[in-house]
Design brief:
mainly alpha
């Protein structure tokens, strides 16, 4: 699926889920910070495709890296030198890592197409927003994996990730 399809389908499904939450829990999605909501739905509906350099989310993040780099330079020339250095380093590291993992083939589905990646991204979201936005983010990510018909592939990649992590961390200590 393309970015617009993921986004459109997720908005429709989230609308139905929101109606259900409103009916059962009296939880109104419109009481949330709408900017956080819109950004979350856009990013988490598409973040799994960040490993494809031609995806809209890759291009969006490329613009983010450039803006972060520019803000870092501005902060260095301002009064926040350490913040500026940190921003520049983060922009360069993220941009470099993104260039390594992103490819242009149909088989681009790597670690970003795992539930583990979606959970990590959603945890970052929880730190900076709210619990309802966190839940919406997780739902958007899971819907992306389902829409790509990649559930079994994601589970297999998750198993491989956690097995490798377990071996690296605990094999030295056992």
């Amino acid at each position: 699926m393309n970015s617009e399809s993921h986004l459109g389908l997720n908005v429709i499904i989230l609308g139905a889920i929101s109606f259900l939450f409103f009916s059962i829990f009296d939880w109104n999605i419109l009481n949330l910070n709408l900017i956080h909501l819109f950004i979350t739905v856009y990013i988490l509906s598409n973040i799994a495709d960040i490993d494809n350099s031609n995806s809209k989310i890759s291009k969006t993040f490329f613009i983010f890296y450039i803006m972060l780099f520019i803000f870092g330079i501005l902060n260095i020339f301002g009064t926040k030198i350490l913040v500026g250095i940190f921003q520049i380093l983060v922009a360069l590291l993220l941009g470099y890592y993104h260039s390594i993992i992103a490819e242009d083939s149909y088989n681009h589905r790597k670690f970003p197409h795992t539930f583990t990646f979606g959970f990590f991204v959603s945890i970052i979201l929880l730190v900076f927003t709210s619990f309802p936005i966190f839940i919406i983010g997780i739902l958007c990510f899971i819907l992306h994996i389902i829409e790509d018909n990649h559930i079994q592939g994601a589970i297999n990649k998750d198993k491989k990730f956690w097995n490798n992590l377990w071996k690296r961390v605990f094999s030295k200590h056992l």
